[in-house]
Sequence to fold (306 residues):
Amino acid sequence: MKPIQIIFLILPEVHLLDLAGADQVFLEAKDYGLDIDVSYCSYGVPIQTSTGIGLENIQHFSEIKASQGDYVIIPGAALGFLNSPEMSRQQELFRWINDCYDNKANVCSICTGSFFLAMAGLLDGKRCTTHWKRTAELQQQYPKLQVVDNILFTEDERIFTSAGVTSGIDLALYIVAKIKDDLLSYKVARELVVYNRRAGNDAQQSVHLQYRNHIHIGVHKIQDWLQEKIDTKMILDDLADVACMSTRNMTRVFKKETGITINDYIQLLRKEKIRELLKNPDLSRRDIALQCGLKSERQVSRILHN
Fold:
């Protein structure tokens, strides 16, 4: 059986991290023995990233044929280029990507790469996403799409789309798991020092960022302390000392600045931590409870279902 092909279609003004992050995942997976071949193609023009770095030794797309089970990945590029007349003239390239899909290959985009797939007609009627700054624009520009907000990546009939930048790593890890298994994906994530392997339906903006849209230094100190000490018992008086505030004033100010109570925030942190730890097959529910400052597996289940 021939190796599965991982084919990166690199467009001019490609975002370097969109390309490099996913590419490194597959390199590490191959080092662990995954039977894949990785190749790179474009449509013949000199390729520079959006930061101006030049890329060489890239095949013309016509030299590559994708077949069933292969993956064609389009990293994001500068939106100004993707919406340019030059891009719209690449009809041969659009036919090629459609042929790849018709040949039962999987087609994937990272960040603004979804605009390319939309232009090629592959996303019509499909669930898809892109960087959170661009989801409304994608939906408006291509009304036939089912654009999903605030999600890391989608999968719909062999078409995968991901949000911005580092979510391409999450998508690549998911693809590794589909080709082989979750254990290999976990090993690759650990090799890359990706401390939290995220699922497709995870929000683009995590709880660590979602409730920090304020400038109150004391509340920031509490949030930092809670994230670092989530495995310890939470005592409000101790948190008040961290913020240099009275306990009563701290609870009032925290809710005013974040919109939720301290206890609710702690539960959200624990839920996110639990979901992260559940991806590690080496950890038992008892281990997870201890790392989240909980006394029992029952508390883990209760938090997950609330």
Observations:
- The chain has two domains: 4-191, 207-305.
- The two ends are 46 Å apart (CA to CA).
